[in-house]
Amino acid sequence: MTKRLTLCADDFAQSGSISAGILQLIDAGRLSATSALCQSPHWPELAGELKARAERVDVGLHFNLTHPFDAPVKPLSHWLMKSQLRQLPHASLRDEALAQIDRFAEHFGRLPDFIDGHQHVHALPVIRDALFDAIQQRWEQRPLPYLRSPDRLGHPGDNRLKALILRSVCTNFDEQAQARRFATTPWFGGMYSLSPQADFAGLMQAWLAKSPDRALIMCHPGQPAADASDPIAASRGREFDYLSSPAFAELCLRQQVSIARFQPELAAVAA
Q1: Any signal peptide, and if so, which residues (predicted)?
Q2: Contact present, 244 and 30 (Cβ < 8 Å)
Q3: Is residue 236 within 8 Å of 18, Cβ to Cβ?
Q4: What is the 3-state secondary structure (H, E, C) of 140-193?
């Protein structure tokens, strides 16, 4: 029986090389979703490239609070600590979510198909509530975007401690999102150390073997580039090389995996 997999490339528009790699993988049929950092100065010029491919992939907002573009940001440690202590300002976070949703729509021409978060900040306490409220304001009666549920992480990758921390800080996100009638991804994978020494091909084999039908796996590919501002640049090149290779296509055939867009209506029925 064929398993449908949503394979999502994060960080579209972060840089030209990252975006070019993602577009190439979309054209090759190796991705079925990508999420965009719409605060990037590259987003206005690249949005059209994605829109031209919107019939083939889900296009989402990669909600960002940690990657600096034109404005200073707080590090992930700040959001982790303050969210667990419930010491974050709901109203300003809602306004930030609205601003990013609006910038996405301004250049893409419509609202995103889904929302996830850079370093999973969208699923942290307080931030998640602000995001839920922003979505409700902008979508009104339209079908709501589906959401990535990091607490449904189904495989620890090569870093069990990192996986444990993620599940812990995002606990109950999926339950709370579904209570607000959002479709959510029922199984999540793709987390690993993101080090150049990691066995990405071996990890992908493990993720595909473990994942059920309608799973979502994130990835971070990009065309190889020397980018001192990107701490995972080397890993992006390795991911791109593997995902564009015949070996990955053969793995999908062997595991009976079909790379497909997510279907929120099926998620609602399963829930």
Answers
A1: none
A2: yes
A3: yes
A4: CCCCCCEECCHHHECCCCCCHHHHHHHHHHCCCHHHHHHHCCCCECCCEECCCC
Task: Tell me the whole-structure pTM to 2 decimals.
Answer: 0.95
Question: What gap in Å lies between CA 95 and CA 12, rounded to an integer?
Answer: 22
What single letter denotes the amino acid at residue 24? Q
Amino acid symbol at 218: M
The domain that holds 58 is classified in CATH as: 3.20.20.370
- For 159-189, what is each residue's pLDDT tens digit? 999 999 999 999 999 999 999 999 999 999 9
Mean pLDDT, residues 31-58: 97
Cβ atoms of residues 83 and 127 within 8 Å: yes
The number of domains in the chain is 1
Distance CA 80, CA 251 (A): 36
Cβ atoms of 147 and 180 closer than 8 Å: no
Q: Name the residue among 33, 30, 99 with its Cα closest to residue 247.
A: 30
Domain containing 238 equals 3-270
Q: State the amino acid at position 167 in one-letter form.
A: R
The amino acid present at 130, given as its one-letter code, is A
